[in-house]
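Board notes (copied after class):
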Amino acid sequence: MVDVLVIGGGNAALCAALMAREAGASVMLLESAPREWRGGNSQHTRNLRCMHDAPQDVLIDAYPEEEYWQDLLKVTGGITNEPLARLAIRESSTCRDWMRKHGVHFQPPLSGALHVARTNAFFMGGGKALVNAYFRSAQALGVQVRYNAPVDAIELDGDRFVAARIGDERIEARSCVLAAGGFESNREWLREAWGQINGEWVADNFLIRGTRFNMGVLLKYMIDAGADSIGDPSQSHCVAIDARAPQYDGGICTRVDCVSLGVMLNRNAERFYDEGEDFWPKRYAIWGRLVAHQPGQIGYSIIDSKAIGRFMPPVFPGTKANTLGELARAMDLDEAKFIDTIQTYNAACRVGKFDHAVLDDCHTEGLTPAKTHWAQPIDKPPFYAFALRPGITFTYLGLKVNENSAVHFGGKPSPNLYVAGEMMAGNVLGKGYTAGVGMAIGTAFGRIAGTQAAQAALKLKEASHAVA
């Protein structure tokens, strides 16, 4: 019998497996995906949001706990567990040396990156390199890794973990960490969560930025088995991504980062939200949900030539036109309405000193919705448009935990069953998102869960030896 069973193959699962092994436990990790698709959504990540009180290696200036907390409080609208959130924040300040020990490298800060060099540490080679480094370290330490191993049931004795099942196969362990992701790839569950608008299923127009293997099987099983849950099933890390992106695994490269530099229109050629509300790293993840509530779940980011060079070049080039009318026709939008919306916006712009690196004084007056920063007339051809659809990264419905990352049943923590990563992120993320916080949550609670699972398993092993 193995001491600790870890179910999942992403960042949180790997952190748990490594910590459990370092604590002296024997560890088996079950990854539902084949080896070439291992790593869950973590393979698509690129950075970790880190608290620090002074410059540290790849992080400039300071990003203290209180500022981090206020940023999280703002994006979640207060729907967060403060003690657990602060725990993740504090853990983010001390994990990088441990990550380096397991082969993760960080890249030097990039210039002109809109504050992220202060708040976020970027992985050299991105999330795929991080996942590969962790798997190499895990196997070097003796962690047993199995691929194509989708667990579909958990055997419980009350609130105690007994075994996991893969079909007819039964795998016993003294303790277990669940880190198998959310349900973003389960279209039926997304349909149920989002419902219909005008007789059409909202979720049918969603693209999945992350892995196709996160079907929520274990999450649903645990909720049905009586585990305490937390979160709204319709809340998720939901980004407006290029409508031409693939159905699954588009990852970060499908993002279009020019929304704050222009205007965003719906299918009726109408604006529907303040594009300049805040810095893009703090606001990019609200736009998927905003677009999801628009007709046909589609939006159009419109910019002119002044914006070119001010945002990360997208993988797919935008639709280009020399006149606004030509651009409207190319996007199949009502030409007269499109031109009127742009001209009305242009007339409302009060341009001061434009600076995309600060909350500048370029804003609109007498316009609803307002654009509060970076408002410049769209008047310099050629003009560009990007069609955007909601891109789901991961869902926020999860299992309720405490500071030890224990699964709860009727308010009581399990003595040997823990959960980390997307399966519990809803404790911290009730809604909204800010760049790199998902990896902070996964790393913090993955490490905690692995440590706690090892302690529980070794304690049980000692007790059984004493009896013997």
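Comment from the instructor: The radius of gyration is 23 Å. The chain has two domains: 2-181+216-235+396-467, 237-391.
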